[in-house]
Structures are given as C-alpha cells and as structure tokens.
Amino acid sequence: MEKHKLICINCPMGCHLEVTKTENGGWLVEGNQCKRGTSYAIRELTEPTRVLTSTVIIKNGFLPRLPVRTETAIPKEKIYKAMDVINKVVVEAPVKVGDVIVENILDTGINVIASRNM
C-alpha cells in the first residue's frame, strides 16, 4: 500500500497526516483533527495547487516592479509555465490592487492580479 505523510495547512492546528491509498483506489486519512484535513490530503495527492505570487515590470511607477498573484490556486504543474508568461509582462502605472494583469493565464480561467496600488 502507498503511504504519504503530510502536514495539513488548512487551519492553525497543523495536523500531521498519514495518508494511505487503499486497495480499492480510495484514500484513508489519519491524524486530522477536523474533516478539512481529509479533503486537503486527498486534493494534495491527486491535484495539487498553489497560489502563485511574483512581480512584473512596471513603467512610471514609484518602484520598478509590481507585486502580483493569481486570484486563486493554479495547478502545481503549471507554475513554471505561468512564470514564463509573467516574466514577459510589462505594465504601465497607475495600477490598483485587484486590477487584472494577465487574464486567464494558461487557459486555467484564473487571472493574475495586482497585489498593490502603484
């Protein structure tokens, strides 16, 4: 049987999870204090995602780079390709928090937005 050890990041408890893939293809999660740990562990092992934070070049801003992030988490396997796209972006000031900097990055349906006014 396939076993994995994870630390849940869904709440401040930081439960140490032990996840076992069962013979029928399901998952057995142990060590979680709440039911969110179960869904976190299964999602992390089957479809891991991350919120991507970075910066882009900004012209006429008071700083040379503008912090940006994805609105929600994107598939982990797309992070490097997303960074390739983000690294080519140049924006012009003024920009407000939440402005869309890259729309629908890599056809994920997720936008890259500004994290700061500039």
From TrEMBL:
Coiled coil: none
InterPro entries tied to this protein: CPE0013-like_sf, DUF1667
Pfam families xrefs: DUF1667
PANTHER family membership: DUF1667 DOMAIN-CONTAINING PROTEIN, MOLYBDOPTERIN OXIDOREDUCTASE, 4FE-4S CLUSTER-BINDING SUBUNIT
UniProt name for this protein: CxxC motif-containing protein
Species: Anaerocolumna aminovalerica
